[in-house]
Amino acid sequence: MTDFQAFTTETGGRTNVLFCKVGVSQAFDLNSNSTEHKPITEVNVIWDTGASCTIITKELATKIGLIPTGKEIISGIDHDSLENTFFVNVFLPNKVCMTDLKIVEVPSIKNADMLIGMDIIGSGDLSLYSENGKTIMSYRYPSIGGTNFVSEANTISTNRAYLQKFEQERQRRKQSNNNKKKKHKH
Q1: 38 Cβ neighbours under 8 A, 6+ residues apart
Q2: Mapping DSSP to helix (H, G, I), strand (E, B) and coil, where does residue 81 land?
Q3: Do residues 69 and 106 both lie within one domain?
Q4: How many domains are contained in the chain?
Q5: Same domain, residue pair 38 and 93
Q6: pLDDT for 71-119, tens place per residue?
Q7: H or E stretch at 104
């Protein structure tokens, strides 16, 4: 089995926006003893399956001291723009770390400092579900496969049908044994 890292977060209620806090630093080798790239922690991020790449605000990129490594065209809702790119390390909850990620700078993001896109989401397995009125998000990296709900439902249906047949046969045998006992008493 493949080793993986994982975390789970839950909201105080149901939500339609997935938030969490992460750490971010300039990309560096985690095996080095370097202390010059200390991550900025408590960074507010939104997980967005509709975004193809991870983006960071200009304000946070400046605060971290990120050094641009190139430019990339970002397609927005109403326009395209040429923006700076950076390589960073992202420290997700529960010490899940992703290194040397190429991210793109944008002027701002509503209610967040970063937006996690499909470049990160697609590298792992993301699960969302509701339980007891809360939204629960679980993520593991790297991907080791996920749940196919159709297959799971078919398996449950097959098992349920098997159990129903088993129970019907058990009831038939019980009735047959009761009938035999009644005949022997006479």
Answers
A1: 25
A2: strand
A3: yes
A4: 2
A5: yes
A6: 999 987 788 999 999 999 999 999 899 999 999 999 999 999 999 999 9
A7: strand 96-106
